[in-house]
Amino acid sequence: MSVQPIRLFGDPVLTTKAVPVVDFDAELRRLVADLADTMQAAPGSGLAAPQIGVGLRVFTYHVDGELGHLVNPELTLSDDEQFGPEGCLSIPGLTFDCRRAQSVIARGFNMYGDPVVIEGSEYLARAIQHETDHLDGILFIDRLDTATRKQAMKAIREAEWSGLSGPPQIKVSPHPMNGFGL
Fold first, then answer.
1. What percent of the chain has pLDDT over 90?
2. pLDDT tens digits for range 28-42
3. Confidence check: pLDDT of 174 > 50
4. Residue-wise over 12-43: b if at least 16 C-beta within 10 A, else e?
């Protein structure tokens, strides 16, 4: 198990839909361990496989002292909403207010192929939705209102780590998120 480089905004893997996991084997368990190690080292509250360059539908989370993972998630979202700050380890150092469902029921599997149901609200719901979006090739900035998205894109272009002044570059995040990244 080891800490892996985190892919940054501009890397095409972040906007590519991940494929379902079909083999619940030692390689998957190693991936889950690498995701957990990388997420905790960043530190962050969640990390999806595409963020370390692996196009599989799996993510880890660490919220309210609970470390977990989910494979092939399917979400049922509440109608009530929350609006608050959100960040991303692939967009380091930046947070913007984002609208999400207040609560979620996430169904999927653990790394051994056993069925799992996670029910969460508030921050856990936000983290699960954020990471599942990564598996669908969606970044949280895609969910921002038009004015805030423009502000986010300007901040990304001006960020020290950004390669957006020219062609997108794949880089490893140099900035810890101090718990704000998902």
1. 86
2. 999 999 999 999 999
3. no
4. ebbeeebeebeebeeebeebbebbbbbbeebe
Q: What are the residue numbers of the active site? A: 131
Mean pLDDT of 51-63: 98
Question: Between vectors from CA 52 to CA 109 and to CA 18, what angle results, nearest 5°?
Answer: 50
- Residue 140 token pair: 């949280």
Output the pLDDT for position 161: 87
CB of 97 within 8 A of CB of 108? no
Measuring CA to CA, which residue among 45, 36, 138, 129 is closest to residue 82?
129
- For residues 78 and 143, give the distance between their C-alpha atoms in angstroms, rounded to a whole number: 17
Cβ atoms of 70 and 128 within 8 Å: the answer is: yes
**Where do the H-state alpha helices sit in 5-118?**
26-41
Integer Cα distance of 20 and 27 in angstroms? 14
Tell me, what's the pLDDT at 164?
A: 57
CA distance 161 to 65: 30
Distance of CA 117 to the CA centre of its chain: 19
